[in-house]
Amino acid sequence: xxxxxxxxxxxxxxxxxxxxxGKALAEEGHQVHFITYSQPARLDFFSxxxxxxEVSVRDYPLFDYAPYESxxxxxxxxxxxxxxxxLLHVHYAIPHASAxxxxxxxxxxxxxxxxxxxxxxxxxxxxxxxxxTYKPVVTFSINQSDGVTTVSADLKEDTxxxxxxxxxxxxxxxxxDFRRFSLQAKDHFKKAIAPNNERILIxxxxxxxxxxxxxVIRVFEKVLQQIPSKLLMVGDGPExxxxxxxxxxxxxxxxxxxxxxxxxxxxILSVSDLFLxxxxxxxxxxxxLEAMACKVPVISSNAGGLPELNVxxxxxxLNDVGDVDGMAENAITILKDDETLAGFKNNALAxxxxxxxxxxLPKYIxxxxxxxxxx
Length: 375
Ligand code: GMT
Known about the structure:
Rossmann fold, 14 helices, alpha/beta, seven-stranded parallel β-sheet
């Protein structure tokens, strides 16, 4: 197949999933064309089946806001026509699904029919999408897609609850590539972070409000009172400055390191004992899956799709959003002795194996085939 993939090229979960999916499809012999405004963060090598088409937006003094959606639609028309694509797969509804719809209409005027699959990732539905600013366009473009997938059953339900959707939605969960995410020996790094063999807790995110990063720090502060430990905060975003302030006021700065954005997250996960993800809303929780693949158990909230990933009392524990005491108590249960911790680590890996790329990739290929047969 010749597949066009549209995504955000940044570190965000939807862009990561789209890029990893494209890379895996290319390895299977499909030709994959990424169409976006800059080189996707994880598309960092050459392959004969991978192509990247940059969408450049022409600026003009009249524009307060340069029209990216029009530039993207025009680029899609061009790439579909001249690379003879079979299918477009757009990740994150806004503005990719509506740009794809526009491109599809234009292509029809050339006698070209291009099926569009839209994958909804979370905030495009739960936060941004249902805002009246975007809702009519999101509803229309989902209904106009030839195929729609969500990354969890919970997001599927949310989509039906918040929008008038007439389409069948297929749930295809996110996946993990164990060739990259698996436990690596990084003892020298562990020693540098935790010289006295303290437990290492970790959080990775974009530090937006929805991640409740302040809860991460509050949970850690309670754990620290009982168990010698360190906290690694990986990533960056709007809440980081406030979180650093919070650590100062709690006088726990000696035990918390803010590492900023990191490429080799798997190396940092490899020295970690517990992953914290207390999010207000989380359609899937790819960051937690990456941790589990590196044998790191998870303390999470029970929001959104997290219960479909983290298994209560097995790969970790789930608590209500904001239940800092409960999360700290469960974290201590996991960390209190080596034997219990080792059990949870093994379970985390076992659970992650259910989301192996090798199991999930065929689901996308099967879905593309179904959509192409209907077209
Ligand atoms: O979590 C974010 O803020 C980034 C966002 C994105 O679209 O890049 O992540 C969403 O998509 C990920 C990949 O499917 C999911 O694993 C995340 O759970 C989801 N985030 C939210 O629902 C908040």
